[in-house]
Amino acid sequence: MPDVDSPYADTSDMYAAHDMFRREFALLPGLVRSTPASDADRVRAVAGHISLVSELLHHHHSAEDSVLWPRLLVRAPKEIDPVVHLAEGHHLAIEDLVAETGERLNAWADGVSGDDGESLADTLQRLAAALYEHMGLEEKLILPLVERHIFATEWNDMVDRLGGEIRPEIAMIVAGMLMYEAGPDPLPEPMRAAAAEVAPQAYAAHCERVHGTSTPPRSTEVIIGAPSFGVPALAR
Question: Among the CATH numbers 1.20.120.520, 3.40.50.2000, 3.30.1490.20, 3.30.1490.100, which is that of 12-164?
Answer without folding.
Answer: 1.20.120.520
